């Protein structure tokens, strides 16, 4: 899997550590008629389905070879977690595949902000008179 650094640079805001536009994890269609394969790509949300990806994260062949009962799926788990942590939104089908694979985002920023909101705030004690 390779990163297209020239394409990546124009979406990256150099003043912060976030991307300036919405990125999606989605499947792109490849292969010839009656033998379709899919690639899991990171693409800007407005780009067409089979457009140039920023990075290819995996592949899925939905066909089962003759005599076998399993389908081929290859995923780069570390890179998927990285992009989910950067705020990329998976499509519905990709979310289904990630749930089957047991891949959860390592979004430390979201966890810290969630922990801060769930902590109980100390209640102010009323003044005691004697």
TrEMBL record:
<keyword id="KW-0689">Ribosomal protein</keyword>
<comment type="similarity">
    <text>Belongs to the bacterial ribosomal protein bS16 family.</text>
</comment>
<keyword id="KW-0687">Ribonucleoprotein</keyword>
<dbReference type="GO" id="GO:0003735">
    <property type="term" value="F:structural constituent of ribosome"/>
</dbReference>
<dbReference type="InterPro" id="IPR000307">
    <property type="entry name" value="Ribosomal_bS16"/>
</dbReference>
<dbReference type="GO" id="GO:0032543">
    <property type="term" value="P:mitochondrial translation"/>
</dbReference>
<feature type="region of interest" description="Disordered">
    <location>
        <begin position="106"/>
        <end position="130"/>
    </location>
</feature>
<feature type="compositionally biased region" description="Basic and acidic residues">
    <location>
        <begin position="106"/>
        <end position="117"/>
    </location>
</feature>
<dbReference type="GO" id="GO:0015935">
    <property type="term" value="C:small ribosomal subunit"/>
</dbReference>
<dbReference type="Pfam" id="PF00886">
    <property type="entry name" value="Ribosomal_S16"/>
</dbReference>
<feature type="compositionally biased region" description="Polar residues">
    <location>
        <begin position="118"/>
        <end position="130"/>
    </location>
</feature>
<dbReference type="GO" id="GO:0005739">
    <property type="term" value="C:mitochondrion"/>
</dbReference>
<dbReference type="InterPro" id="IPR023803">
    <property type="entry name" value="Ribosomal_bS16_dom_sf"/>
</dbReference>
<protein>
    <submittedName>
        <fullName>Ribosomal protein S16</fullName>
    </submittedName>
</protein>
């Amino acid at each position: 899997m390779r990163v297209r650094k020239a394409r990546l640079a124009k979406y990256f805001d150099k003043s912060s550590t976030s991307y300036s536009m919405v990125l999606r994890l989605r499947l792109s269609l490849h292969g010839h008629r009656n033998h379709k394969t899919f690639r899991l790509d990171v693409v800007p949300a407005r780009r067409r389905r089979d457009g140039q990806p920023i990075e290819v994260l995996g592949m899925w062949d939905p066909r089962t070879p003759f005599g076998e009962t399993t389908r081929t799926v290859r995923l780069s788990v570390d890179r998927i977690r990285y992009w989910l942590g950067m705020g990329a939104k998976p499509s519905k089908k990709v979310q289904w595949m990630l749930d089957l694979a047991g891949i959860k985002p390592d979004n430390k920023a979201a966890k810290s902000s969630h922990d801060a909101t769930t902590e109980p705030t100390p209640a102010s004690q009323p003044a005691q008179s004697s």
